[in-house]
Write a structure and sequence with these properties.
Elements lengths: L1 E7 L16 H9 L1 E7 L5 H10 L3 H4 L18 H7 L3 E6 L25 H14 L6 E6 L32 H30 L6 E7 L14 H4 E2 L1 E4 L8 E8 L3 H9 L13 H5 L9 E7 L3 E8 L3 E6 L15 H8 L10 E5 L17 H17 L29
């Protein structure tokens, strides 16, 4: 059995099978052929911590990746990486394109046997290299192939000459964003990048079928976190942690099923182990997705957790989400919005011009996800929600204690090797 891991940057759930008007027909086809998880969440709303959590199967503060790899954050134990575990069991492990878990000098420790060179991690460069590897591989060996794209990370470049382009006058802004010409123009750029990612993944999936490996390969397609827009990336609400997750292949991941139960990207590692017939490593925190697709379970989790500690600046937050509620706790004590953790763009510029920085962040927030799915109304101070608040506070504190969260230390500071900017900075404007 083989494993194909397809992943993008900063896409959230903004693809066609989740109801968004995005030009992603091949991703939609994968949904029709496999299983789509409507309520999938990342462990973190920033790049390296989210990816490390998925590929190590535990929380960022457990595996050490509490910030960005290119800013100095490092894994505690790379032997726990999925490629190392599969490689030790006989799989050929290959990386093409983006990984963002280790710096170049630390890549070898992750366990990949082959890293075909690419000119960039853009879709146009990554897809041909992945297709070439599939066609030329040793077909006597099972493989784990990671294909990572820079898309849909900012900045959004303009279309090349002769390339199809969307007329931004007829596009809608992302949820929660003002409807302005500049923001619609960025949506056109987002669509261009989504189109490129979709075509790249389509080419890889075609090569998988052409080489006879499709029926014996579990395909996992996901992203690291939400869109790089204000209120999404680098926030621990649904807009920041909600991700696309499509799975196709052996184990019942077929037939166009749609799963509404909450799942975590931490569930991917145990799913791979279950289908590969490997023992479950003791450090894993998630659960296999197989019971959700074979009908033996209706739910896996009563609650999911999320965390962010460092991005461009330190901005530690923790969250617990149940089907009805989300509770968020900030630990930074800042009395200003941390603008350095918001990617540059038209919406950020517009928000700053209209005084967004003075909208003080709340230490605690409680949201009713049924009556307020956009998480706009903070119920933490409402007496009629005191019992819910106390329960979620206690559950979050228990999780932090059980997982050894460093934020339990009231004097915690970012490790010296992690480069962070002051929280008062406006730039750098995201990574």
């Amino acid at each position: 059995m083989n494993f194909l891991y397809l992943h993008t940057h900063d896409t959230g759930r903004h693809v066609a099978p989740y109801g968004f008007a995005m030009p992603t027909p091949r991703i939609a086809q994968l949904a029709r052929e496999g299983v789509l998880f409507r309520q999938a969440f990342s462990a973190a709303p920033v790049c390296s911590p989210s990816r490390a959590a998925l590929l190590h199967g535990n929380w960022p503060h457990e595996n050490g990746m509490i910030g960005l790899a290119h800013r100095g954050s490092r894994l505690n134990d790379a032997s726990q990486h999925l490629a190392n575990v599969l490689g030790d069991a006989g799989w050929q492990c290959v990386l093409v394109g983006e990984q963002h878990v280790a710096p170049p000098e630390g890549l070898a420790a992750l366990g990949y046997h082959d890293v075909p060179p690419v000119a960039s991690t853009r879709a146009a460069d990554v897809a041909p290299a992945a297709v070439r590897w599939l066609r030329e591989r040793d077909r006597s060996r099972s493989f784990f192939l990671s294909v990572g794209l820079h898309e849909t990370h900012r900045p959004y470049p303009p279309p090349d000459p002769g390339e199809p382009a969307d007329d931004p006058r007829y596009l809608a802004p992302p949820p929660g964003m003002p409807d302005t010409p500049a923001i619609r123009a960025e949506v056109a750029g987002l669509r261009r990048m989504a189109r490129a990612a979709d075509a790249a993944f389509g080419a890889v999936l075609d090569a998988l079928r052409e080489t006879g490996a499709a029926d014996d390969t579990l395909v996992v397609l996901t992203t690291d976190h939400g869109l790089p827009w204000p209120g999404a990336k680098c926030t621990v609400g649904d807009a920041g942690t909600g991700v696309m997750l499509l799975v196709r292949g052996p184990g019942g991941f077929t037939g166009g099923k749609v799963v509404d139960a909450m799942v975590s990207q931490l569930d991917i590692f145990p799913t791979v182990c279950a289908l590969a017939g490997l023992p479950r490593p003791p450090w894993l925190r998630g659960r296999s997705l197989v019971p959700l697709v074979d009908g033996s379970a209706d739910a896996l989790h009563e609650a999911l957790f999320a965390e962010v500690t460092c991005h461009a600046a330190a901005e530690p937050m923790r969250s617990i989400r149940t089907p009805r509620w989300r509770y968020i706790r900030r630990f930074d004590g800042s009395d200003l919005r941390v603008l350095a953790n918001v990617d540059a763009g038209a919406a950020k510029t517009l928000f700053i011009e209209h005084g967004w920085r003075r909208w003080l962040p709340e230490t605690e927030s409680l949201h009713d996800l049924v009556l307020d799915p956009g998480e706009h109304v903070n119920l933490a101070a409402r007496p009629d929600h005191a019992q819910v608040l106390a329960d979620l506070r206690a559950r979050l504190a228990d999780w932090m204690e059980q997982t050894g969260d460093p934020l339990l230390d009231p004097d915690w500071q970012p490790p010296a090797q992690i480069h962070v900017v002051p929280r008062t900075s406006v730039r750098p404007e995201g990574d």
